[in-house]
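Hi all, long-time lurker, first post. I run a small reading group and we've been trying to get comfortable going from sequence to structure in the token notation. Rather than ask abstract questions, I figured I'd post a concrete chain and ask someone more experienced to write out its structure so we can walk through it together at our next meeting. Sequence below, copied exactly:
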Amino acid sequence: MGDLLIIALLLVSLLITVSSLDDAFIDLLAMGITRFRSPRLNQQSGVLPRTAVFVANWHEEDVLGKMVEGNLARIQIPEVSFFLGVYPNDTGTLRVAKELEAKHPDRVCVIVNTLPGPTSKGQMLNEMFAQVFSREDCPEMAVLHDSEDVIDPRTFPIYAAYAVEHDFIQVPVFSLNRGKGAHVASTYMDEFAEPLAASIKQKSRWVYGINFEAAHKLGWDGDLWDVYFFMRDRKGMITNFLPAISMTMFGLLFLDYIDLSNIPPGLEPLLEASLGANLIALIARYVVRVAACRQVYGGFDWIGVAVRWPVALYINMAAVFLAWKTYLGESEFATKPVVWSKTVHELPEDFMAAAR
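-- Answer (accepted) --
Happy to help. Here is the structure in token form:
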């Protein structure tokens, strides 16, 4: 039993090492892109392409009106319009969407799904794309947002600049100001947000779509870069369990259930190197998180990052577990569509004053 635990400790440590090296490579790649390959933003007014903001909805009548009105006030760019996807049987959201369309006919358009809801968010977005881009006056670019998003108007020139060379662009999502005790919601400062149960539920949808459904539908076809980023997307279905497993291993080590004196001589240098590399990666990741938090929010939050990090790790692990359940159960190995799993959204009272 002791030998098996030592082998398990080594395997977990090596998996963490490989994943950490992967993350470090992306960090270096991102720094190089930021320094040498960022496109110049066009400062001239009136040159942005006609852009559609797609908002897919299911029972969002309580927040949709406020979201659209607030973002229209923030985005003083006539080339940007909102396209609201709704279901014919979601009468509350349909009513609100139609009222917004009537009030802002030049900037709001309602897209009614041909199927009753809920289907899935992917089906709704596919329906929106099919209807909007079959028109002769279709927009030149589409941006995806959720019904709880506060949109920064500065993102649209960024999209336009990157769209010259790229088909798909993703910008970071930042947390708005939160109370000091809102540890779950504040994890979005580093990676995620919302109340705990809602966070797990919402992130499990992302994990299922990115890790499981995409793997089933897209496979591993592509060039080396495609395969590499497929691997990065999908490694989370395993690596998000590693922090909890590694903590269990260290607990067993502390309680003397694992005796490192019994490790085979040939494996000892490998384990020492792996553990050392993981410690360096842990410190480096912590410093990067603190530095990134300062860049975005304006201050060094050493303690806050240390508190939010384990909360985020738990959310990630629980979300992956739930996504595995969905994959093995409801979706039957991603062969059946998954019904839209809705979470409750909150919006700031004052959109114009909302800040990170």
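A couple of things your group might point at:
The longest strand covers residues 80-86.
The chain has a mean pLDDT of 88.
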